[in-house]
Amino acid sequence: MENVGAKVIKTLAAIAVLAILLLVAYTWLAMSWSYSSGERAGYVQKFSHKGWLCKTWEGEMALVSMPGTVAEKFYFTVRDDALAKRINQSIGQRVALSYEQHIGVPTSCFGETQYFISDIKIVDEPGFTPKPAVPALPKP
């Protein structure tokens, strides 16, 4: 009877180990394969280090295409502390964030969003030189 119990325990242990290995392989695949990548430009308006156990940098960027339009929000995650420092230093400036979208990440421990930032660039503001409403009169 003990022999049957030992076989059951070994079988259950093998199934548990196999399930853990499959979960690890799936997580690795989800984090290494990028569904999409691109760049978004705007103003970082919220950026904080969050999480109970696994802390990640979570941010919110306002995407403003033209002055006076309603801003769309882009939520993103940063896992690299050096990159997070660069983003913190650029708050208030127009920036372009390069991202990779990872779909199907099994836990929020890796980040709260699907969009993981890989680089940041400061974007020069387009110059605006208003023209006078009334043309200047020629000097006599």
Your description of this structure?
The chain is of the alpha+beta class and 140 residues long. The protein has helices spanning 2-32, 81-89; strands at residues 36-50, 56-63, 72-78, 94-101, 115-122. The chain has two domains: 1-33; 35-122, Nucleic acid-binding proteins (OB fold (Dihydrolipoamide Acetyltransferase, E2P), Beta Barrel). It starts with a helix and ends in an 18-residue tail after the last strand. 13% of the residues are buried. The model has no long low-confidence stretch (mean pLDDT 85).
List keywords for this structure.
140 residues; alpha+beta; OB fold (Dihydrolipoamide Acetyltransferase, E2P); 2 domains; 5-stranded antiparallel sheet; 29% helix; rod-shaped
**How would you sum up the global shape?**
rod-shaped
* Main sheet specs: 5 strands, antiparallel
Low-confidence stretches: none
Identify the CATH architecture of the largest domain.
Beta Barrel
Average pLDDT over all residues: 85
Helical segment count: 2
Helix/strand order: HEEEHEE
Report the end-to-end length measured between terminal Cα atoms.
Answer: 116 Å
CATH topology of the largest domain: OB fold (Dihydrolipoamide Acetyltransferase, E2P)
User: What is the CATH superfamily label of the largest domain?
Assistant: Nucleic acid-binding proteins
What is the rounded Rg? Answer: 25 Å
Derived structural class: alpha+beta
DSSP E strands, number? 5
Strand content: 25-35%
Q: How are the strands of the largest sheet arranged?
A: 3-2-1-4-5
State the name of the first-level CATH class of the largest domain.
Mainly Beta
Count of distinct structural domains: 2
Helix content: 25-40%
